[in-house]
Amino acid sequence: GALLVNERIDREELCGALSPCSLSFEIVVENPLELYSGTVEIQDINDNDPVFPSSQARLEISESVAAGARFPLESAQDPDVGINSLQTYQLSANPNFALDVQTRVDGSKYAELVLEKELDREEQRELNLVLTALDGGSPPRSAHVQIHIDVVDANDNAPVFNQSTYKASVRENTPSGTLVARISAYDLDDGPNGDIVYSFSSHTPAKVRELFALDSATGDLRVKGQLDYEETKLYEIYLQAKDKGAVPGVAHCKVLVEVVDVNDNAPEVTVTSVYSPVPEDAAPGTVVALLSVTDLDSHDNGLVNYVNDNAPKSSQDSYDVYVLENNMPGIPVLNVSATDPDLGRNAHLSYTLLQGDPAFGHLFSINRENGTLYLLTSLDHEDQVEFSMVVQVQDGGFPPLATNVSVSVFVTDLNDNAPTVLYPHPNTTSSYADVVAPGTPAGHMVTKVVAVDADAGYNAWISYTLLQATDPSLFSVGLHNGEIFTARQLREDDAPEHTLVILLKDHGEPVLSTSATVSISVAEVVKEVLTDLTDVAPANDPRRHVTFYLILAVILVSAAFFITMLSVGIFKCYKWRQSKELYSSSRSTTYRTPGPFHHIDAVRGGFTPPSFYHQVYLTTDSRQSDLLCKKPFTSSPLGSRQGTIRNGEPGLYHQIVGTASRLPTPAE
Questions:
Q1: Do 313-412 and 420-522 fold alike per CATH?
Q2: pLDDT tens-digit profile of 564-582?
Q3: 7-66 per-position pLDDT tens digit
Q4: Which of the ends of the chain has fewer CB neighbours closer than 10 A, N or C?
Q5: What distance in Å separates the CA atoms of residue 512 and residue 505, rounded to the nearest whole number?
Q6: Which residues pair with 255 in a beta bridge?
Q7: Widest distance between CA atoms in the chain
Q8: What is the pTM of this model?
Q9: Where do the structural domains in the chain lie, given as residue ranges?
């Protein structure tokens, strides 16, 4: 019965960081038959040195950092456990920094530099420290890392996290890329000094970096590797936010990620002993085999039961049900059937209606025992045509197994809506009538009856017939479109007013109908009809005056434009004729200086008053220039000072003086 070591034992290879490290075995003793369990604990020895990730570490610390600021340092790793694992850190003597050793939730150690005396860049630009990691062995093993600190000027404001500790939970076996937590920090600086970059703290274990990824821009912490609840139940992740200044400000936070167990491990059955063959005269109750079942999951996921291994199975995956609208409430519309090959409670089925839409609970109900689906209220095809739901069939096992069945209920249409007249409106109180001119030929469309039917398909087809008319021979109506045409040419002796009653029927069973009354006026001139329409229009409509003023404004603008263009044309024609006369006279007449005023003949002739005299000066090239008209000698009774050549009357005399040596001065 001696238990011997068969080969060299390496505790770190067998159990890693798990402590205590134990190996289990079972021993069967026969006659009498007994089963014993045993455990061998593998104890650790101090055979591993602490190891830093790198031999050097570099820090940039602003001289404006106040005393008490903390700076995490890279942690050393020691695969030993217990007292032989990493126990403490030591820092070389210096006047500015002290070392603070912290303990994580899992018992591991990490160190932080604590600034005790503020730095002065002008006094000392850099510092070199040595960090030593020691385990608890006897004698202790150690590791060293050189810490180089650059003292530089930094931003006035460092990033600040909105909370120092974040908590999140994530299910094991969560796919890569799943969002775990979103950290957020802010920086009061502007520009690059306010831009924040997120990263893992320097003492974050390599295992954490393999399992989680951090977005440097958004602060999103996502799953990167495969999480396993059975390996680690809680992760303590240290993150930092650093701005992009010349001397970046840094803030730190902690994220606690709880791994939630899922049922990802199947039970394992172990046959401890088998008795074969079995004697034919073995008594009832004789032990044939010993079975043990284990499950690595925890809580309910690790509880093992023997029996329910078949889910309910429906005769079909989906059902389509057609129900006439206006049904009686409480009628059954479907029976969902399913079977389960298990026995007893594991084969007992229950039916549940999954409420995708909360309103369905007031419309449908299902019997939990037999799967009969009932309608609780009357349905309306015009309100909703289709209802989609899911029926869940579940057995009574532990844990229970279930199957989902899709059910679609279609509401078929009944002819329960009569046609509705949209035009002419049946409830209108105005005396508006459609107008047709005398002498209109046959086949002219006068108006149209517009109607709709809320039903669907054949039940919504509408036919139009002329039920009653003042003169049945004068008008006809389209059977399918409701258009009213003249059946013959209008004559002088036809009545001036006509009333038509149109019958509208659908094609449902039974047929539903309604009627529309159309008034038609025979008007001699359109003005009379417009007068009638004006009388019918509401008196309190403010838009009527706006329309009138808009039309009036358009007319006035158009008239002004036409008059302006006509005046410009006349003026251009007059100038052209005058310049032509001046050009022809210039060849026979010599220009001279102004002489005596010769306007007596014009005054005696009665063509113009003595005060309406103009003196005009022209250059030698006057035939190509406009005339400069001076003011009258005496103002008019209205005080007008205008006097142009265009306003001159026949017989008006103008003295024209040509100057060959100079142009007229502004005064002239």
A1: yes
A2: 999 999 988 888 888 777 6
A3: 888 888 888 878 788 888 888 888 888 888 889 988 888 888 898 989 899 998 887 888
A4: N
A5: 6
A6: 166, 237
A7: 170
A8: 0.39
A9: 11-42, 56-152, 160-260, 313-412, 420-522
